[in-house]
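User: Continuing from earlier, I have the next pair ready.

Assistant: Great, send them over.

User: Here they are, in order.

Assistant: Folding the first of the pair now:
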Amino acid sequence: MQGKKNILTYEGLRKYESELEELKVVRRQEVAQKIKEAREQGDLSENAEYDAAKDEQRDIEARIEELENILKNVEIVDEDEVDLDKINIGCRVKLWDVEFEEELEYKIVGSTEANSIKGKISNESPVGRALLGHAVGDVVQVETGAGIIEYKVLDIQRSN
């Protein structure tokens, strides 16, 4: 059975590949050295440095496994080929929040790459899902837990 595809932009792919390389090449060796030094101190039953290093090693290995699983089932969105007539994954959109009368800008990405603090919203989020397929000038209603929010699509651009 094949799992859910992890949709990434090239930027997201490079970020995850770089993190995986850093963890495998640099961080693993650093932690192995910490464990070795802690072992040399003697009794491991009361060795806080050893316990901390082993915890760190476990966390690194878990993150490596998580990244490998993401990258194993990845689908890349080529932002240069995104159709700018309609909102799609890989584009940057400018919206007008009708209620608060303010302009917002988001990049639509796959859920794996989403980061609302950086303005990257998932195609699976309520706002992202509602925006997909709409064109400049459309008014989009988004149903949220707080009620219905209306956005007017002002612009659709390539995100790179």
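And the other member of the pair:
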Amino acid sequence: MDVGGISSYTNYLQSQNTSASKLKESVDGKDYSQASDEELLDVCKQFESYFLEQIFKEMQKTVDCFKDEDGVNPNNNLVTYFRDEVIQDLAETSTEKQGLGLAQMMYEQMKQNYSL
């Protein structure tokens, strides 16, 4: 593998956990008992988006597309990178447009628990 391929692969691996690390950063070290309604709802939507993303990724694993006769994808890194980006974007859009209602239920429960 050439140096360019290694750096592309390294960039791909770093971007793999972007949504998880973004969610972790927004939650770690914060006291949501003093959070505004908007901040609380935003975190709940981020969690729902992450949850949907994980569901979509597991669903994708059940589909055997883009493989040659040997069962190997010749463009695995590139296809996986863009597929993951599309899945992440789809999860965020789904949460913003309609969602599962999970974010709203979590928001209401957290408001009640924190007496906001």
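Worth noting for the second one:
Helices lie at 3-16, 18-27, 37-61, 76-97, 102-114. The mean pLDDT is 76.
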